[in-house]
Structure prediction request, 592 residues.
Amino acid sequence: MSTATMALSSTQIQRSPRHTATIYLKEAKYEFLKNLRLRVYTASVLSFPIMFYVLFGLVLNSHQAIGATSIPKYLIATYGTFGVMGASLFGTAAGLASDRGLGWLQVKRASPMPPFAYFAAKVITSMIFSMIIVLALFTLGITLGGVRMPLADFAKVLGTLALGSVPFSAMGLALGYFTGPNSAPATINLIYLPMSFCSGLWVPIMFLPQVVRKIALVLPPYHLSQLALGIVGGGQHESNVAHWEVLAAFTMICLGVARIGFQRDQGKLYG
Amino acid sequence: MITTSVATLEQPQHADAVNSKLVVASLEGVNKNYGSVRALRGVDFRVRAGELVALLGPNGAGKTTAVKLLLGLLQPNSGRARVFGGDPTNPENRMRTGAMLQVGRVPETLRVREHIDLFSSYYQKPMAPADVLAAAGLEKVSDRKFGDLSGGQRQRVLFALAICGDPDLLFLDEPTVGLDVEARRMVWDEIRRMVSRGKTVLLTTHYLQEADALADRVAVIHQGEIIAQGTPAEIKAKTAGKRIRCITSLSLNILRQIPGVTEVKEDREAIEIHAVVAESIVRELLARDAGLSGLEVSSAGLEEAFLALTQDTPREENHSN
Prediction:
């Protein structure tokens, strides 16, 4: 190989930062539009947490409280976590498994798209849908459930849950690399629904059996919900740092698994 | 001629190719296996600047594998794939390459113009969106969601995504599968226009007719090996053949001895004869069997053409099965 060829092989594309930013923005914009128009996605991801909240938080238990925290307020944190988890898992895993399994990702990979833009778009889209769900729960809680809290707390809950979409997006990427286009949604449900229950997202954690409460300690949604509950005064009073650490470690593990899948797809592990 | 700097191109290594143009894409001694299946075996293949090359072969011959290797989507088990003298995965090379692949599912909720807008954004100097829509014949459906398009329209969107970056090198994997005659002509015209503007095109097809209509050069691929390369006229001369079908009392052995007959087989109540030229054989048949009936003469299909080619080419292995 000539030196000219060698030099070329290591060249990176000289795109202006503005051009790169445009690509990332468009990738995210169209990923968002794609999911927004996908009825399967919006129906399951948006409507389930909202429906559950209306039923269990507003219709049935709205005048009760857990400690000093009213049920409508408490359930914003837990159904918020539930919604974030669903939006992120379905947004990343289902799309990635389908794109990978049915050839679309190859078309993208053959183009000069910066590979990271594809993943960033999925994570950003999941985060936006997560925020839409949490905002919808707040709107319902404030208007119909008498939820009142300082603006700073409201911002903290929203910010925490939005950031909480990152570990589940990472988990979605890992799942998307190791499931097929048809098996992805079922696999997600198989993990997502039991995990939500055991983490106390449907029935508050203190009402769950001892053994489930022990299991919850290793489940990421438990830790995210406790961070959100801590802000509204309904937490288990454990260390916030520990909650963040568990979520960070979980994110790293999932990204590691996703990376193995990514490299396998690039053909680097064979030949 | 292509107007790129010479430093980015690799000189052909064949002594007999000294006078030819620069090689912009090549497979060099490539073997590719999927598990125990040998998809490509010792493939040597070059595409030169400004050429329109057709990779012709039946389904499962290894055409798509060859394209994916040249796009850097697959890695060869041995040998190497080069594009513009470098690694196909090099982002700089991808910037100059467009690809149309066979896709199971394209995001269906995005509109045609949105798909084009996104892909155009990846490139430094994309074509104007209106030009892309016109080139692919999608003006009337630009606002439609991909999921609402017909099969032919979907195929044309994939073509639009391949050309929207105005690439120097275009890979088209079965570009006209599922297109009606009119749409096929339009894609052909657009491919010709790309070549007339100095672009290089590699397309795969299983239609001899398509390779004939478009290509400067055809490489015939069969069971993972390139078994013939040449101009369309050269390939046709090699693969030309006729199929004669009739009901006759003549025995298979007698038929086999008629000069020019390459193959004889029984097909239900009739006999099927393969031959290079039909006329002399038909004359002979009628002379020998006055009771001959149900005579049909047709051009040999591509499958027969491949058989003819595999038999003409000296081979290490027997692929008669």
